[in-house]
Design goal:
Elements (H helix, E strand, L loop, with lengths): L8 E6 L10 E6 L3 H6 L1 H7 L3 E4 L4 E2 L8 E3 L15 H13 L3 E6 L3 E4 L4 H6 L54 E3 L45 E7 L4 E8 L17 H14 L5 E4 L7 H12 L3 E2 L5 E2 L3 E3 L5 H8 L1 E2 L4 E4 L2 H12 L19 H4 L31 H4 L1 H9 L4 E6 L21 E2 L4 E2 L2 H12 L3 E4 L13 E7 L8 E8 L6 E7 L7 E4 L18 E3 L5 E7 L2 E2 L2 E2 L4 E6 L3 E7 L4 E2 L16 E2 L7 E7 L11 E6 L41 E3 L1
Parallel strand pairs: 2-3, 2-17, 3-6, 6-11, 11-14, 14-16
Antiparallel strand pairs: 1-34, 4-5, 7-8, 9-10, 12-13, 15-16, 18-19, 20-21, 21-22, 22-29, 23-26, 24-25, 24-29, 27-28, 30-33, 31-32, 33-35
Helix pairs in contact: 5-6, 11-12
């Protein structure tokens, strides 16, 4: 292993019969410079995350969070960085986080540019780079009824708006969103949008923007490289099929790109392709999706990303994306979700997240039952009628709807009550992908939009106490190790109290591929008074199964000072257990950990790295929180490293647990043990891309458990 490059090592310890992690946890990591994110890659990795949703990476207005796009193809230079840094820093961050086995989802603006600018001076300068404003001749300020070129114009009474159907001039697809200029995806003004040299097909230049620059060649695919040709079969709402031929960007010789004329839709999809080919982005969050017509997404955008992402094992697949659609679940699913053999476009579960925030804030008649509302609870059931993780990206908070803050100033640090850990426990243990939102507070903004606050403890540091805080990262690790299989609500099996008004109990059982043996038992409580609530429920665990409480809440004297919440449950002969579920307050005071999670014991292990020489120490406590790396990093001075893992049974009284072990370096799929193959293929349930320990290895179900060594 090179001493000059950072690597990450992952170990898989699997109990016999345990299936794979079903979804990565996504960290929405906002308000941090790219360099801070790169520096904190070890903290991200150790916290257990598998993906990052990054803010819009392109140049926007000064001090902006990025949603008012100005120049999409300008990713930052030392002379004019974006709010987050430079293109080189962006690429370095992505490379480092890929080493930590992260997927990178970029926030993507396809609906609009920045605030509508009517001035003659803006037109003379060239307007928004790459876009045509059709300047007035003779030059003057634009009016609503003028032809706006690549953008939607207004009417005599003013510009259209897409925010409020009850206000004048409403138009969902042609209206401006909070006064931000709306792109006319249907316009067909053909120009070379990023000119390289003098060409009559170039977009008309301004005094500042849209001028020829030889470096612009890197913003285009290379037409001399082999293309791919395929059919987009279309959808019911936008029938096909249509045949397409697409070319790749030349990442070895970027200036071999070939400028060709295109319209606004071609510009938007070219940017999307560039972010995948040249900057190794793995997927996308699609902002304001409902304000762009469905044909744009189904015909053009889905085509642009089809089979465009290369996996660590070399396969080409279609990237995962998820839309923002502030509408009913039926509207979003029917018009803006596409999950078929051609596309993987999902949706943020905005209505479900709103109901979870209601539970935190005790708004209205907040109840766990509200999550079952077909149109304004979870979107998950829209496709097949089941809460099974087949639809929807789950979360509680985001930059738009955070734990605290109003968007007009830096938000305060939220209290424990405001972060609602019991709802995070729910999101991280129910089926489907989960997002944890973290505002790193590392960007200085003198004015404008301030993203709301999220979970300050997302990377295991509590800025209020200035101490390590693993309450959330413990839940993430539970997700990674146990949260798999079918979702079974259990309240209805309690003969005494079947209500879900305050307490929700569910289990995850089976692998999702057959069988129903229990994996995880979750109990959540939204009550804020003192005490606990008792439920007796039917489970899928075998009789005599020993279920251990995983969060540490049952053993915490602040949560359970009277020892009423057991650390261990033993399933009775009828597969039933009695659970005491803590409320947010005990007789010792408020604790805000109103949840317990139980599962069978799995093996534990001790890791040794032989061949290291010292370490890079963690950053001191006086470092800026957004930049402070909590983890120390072992230094490997040579090209070889010995990994030793000693495993043991976690519960000596449980006869059913055994162990197996494997390791992965970086993103895996490398033959580190020199046996001529990757030991676990991408099809493997538990450890795709992992390698077996080679020098000393004892198969499972044998004793004694030895040291494992590479």
């Amino acid at each position: 292993m090179s001493p000059l490059r950072a690597h990450t090592l992952a170990l898989a310890l699997a109990a016999a019969g345990a299936p794979a992690q079903e979804r990565e946890v996504i960290l929405q990591w906002f308000e941090a410079p790219w360099s801070d994110m790169e520096r904190r890659a070890p903290d991200f990795f150790l916290a257990g995350y598998g993906a990052i949703w990054i803010p819009p990476p392109a140049l926007a207005s000064d001090f902006s969070a990025g949603y008012d796009a100005f120049d999409r193809f300008h990713l930052g230079t030392p002379q004019r960085p974006t709010a987050y840094g430079t293109e080189q820093r962006l690429d370095a961050m992505i490379a480092e986080l890929h080493n930590a086995n992260a997927l990178i989802y970029a926030d993507t603006i396809m609906n609009h540019n920045s605030f509508r600018n009517t001035s003659a001076g803006f037109q003379a300068a060239g307007g928004w780079p790459g876009f045509w404003l059709n300047p007035q001749d003779p030059l003057r300020d634009k009016l609503p009824t003028d032809d706006w070129g690549d953008f939607h114009k207004g009417v005599a009474s003013g510009y259209l708006q897409s925010e409020d159907p009850n206000r004048p001039r409403y138009d969902l697809f042609k209206g401006d969103l909070v006064d931000i200029v709306d792109i006319a995806q249907e316009s067909n003004n053909q120009f070379i949008r990023h000119p390289v040299d003098d060409d009559p097909r170039n977009i008309p230049p301004g005094t500042v923007h849209n001028r020829p620059n030889p470096d612009n060649a890197r913003l285009y695919p290379d037409l001399d490289l082999p293309p791919v040709t395929f059919w987009n079969p279309g959808t019911d709402r936008n029938p096909g099929p249509q045949q397409w031929t697409l070319y790749p960007f030349n990442t070895d010789e970027p200036l071999e790109g070939d400028p060709v004329p295109g319209n606004t839709t071609a510009l938007l999809t070219r940017w999307t392709q560039m972010m995948m080919d040249a900057h190794d982005v793995d997927g996308f969050r699609l902002d304001a999706a409902k304000h762009a017509p469905t044909w744009f997404w189904d015909i053009f955008w889905d085509t642009a990303v089809h089979q465009r992402r290369q996996t660590p094992d070399g396969r080409l697949i279609t990237p995962f994306s998820f839309v923002e659609s502030v509408e009913s679940n039926a509207f979003t699913y029917n018009d803006y979700v596409r999950k078929d053999s051609f596309a993987r476009r999902d949706a943020l579960d905005l209505n479900g997240s709103g109901k979870l925030r209601d539970l935190i804030n005790a708004a209205g008649f907040a109840s766990w039952n509200a999550l079952d509302d077909a149109n304004f609870g979870h979107i998950d059931a829209q496709d097949d009628g089941f809460q099974n993780g087949s639809l929807g990206v789950n979360h509680v908070f985001s930059h738009d709807n955070g734990s605290v803050g109003n968007g007009s100033s830096m938000p305060p640090i939220p209290t424990d009550r405001q972060i609602g850990l019991f709802t995070q426990a729910y999101v991280l243990t129910r089926p489907g992908p989960a997002i944890i939102y973290h505002n790193a507070r590392g960007i200085d903004r003198p004015f404008g939009f301030y993203p709301r606050e999220g979970l300050p403890i997302a990377l295991a540091w509590n800025p209020t106490t200035e101490t390590l805080d693993h309450r959330l990262t413990t839940l993430i690790k539970i997700h990674n190790q146990y949260a798999r299989g079918f979702f079974f609500p259990l309240n209805n099996t309690d003969p005494q109290n079947q209500s879900k008004d305050d307490v929700l109990i569910f289990e995850r059982a089976g692998s999702g591929l057959g069988g129903t043996e229990g994996n995880l038992l979750v109990a959540l409580n939204d009550r804020r008074d003192t005490g606990f609530d008792t439920r007796n429920v039917q489970t899928s665990f075998s009789p005599a199964t020993r279920l251990h409480e995983l969060t540490g809440n049952a053993a915490d004297p602040q949560v359970d000072p009277t020892n009423d919440i057991p650390d261990l449950l033993i399933v009775d002969n009828n597969r039933r257990v009695t659970i005491n579920v803590p409320r947010a307050r005990s007789t010792a005071g408020p604790h805000e950990r109103s949840y317990v999670i139980y599962a069978p014991a799995v093996p534990v292990g001790t890791l040794e790295l032989l061949g290291t020489k010292g370490e890079l120490p963690a950053d001191p406590d006086n470092a800026r929180d957004s930049r402070q790396r909590l983890a120390s990093i072992p230094i490997v001075p040579a090209d070889t490293l010995t990994i030793r893992l000693t495993t043991q049974q976690a519960d000596p009284l449980d006869p059913n647990t055994d162990d197996d072990a494997a390791f992965r370096i970086d993103q895996g799929f490398t033959d580190w043990n020199n046996n001529g193959r990757t030991d676990f293929s991408f099809l493997h349930q538990a450890a795709p891309g992992y390698e077996r320990f080679a020098d000393v290895y004892e198969p499972p179900l044998r004793r004694p458990r030895p040291q494992r060594q590479l």
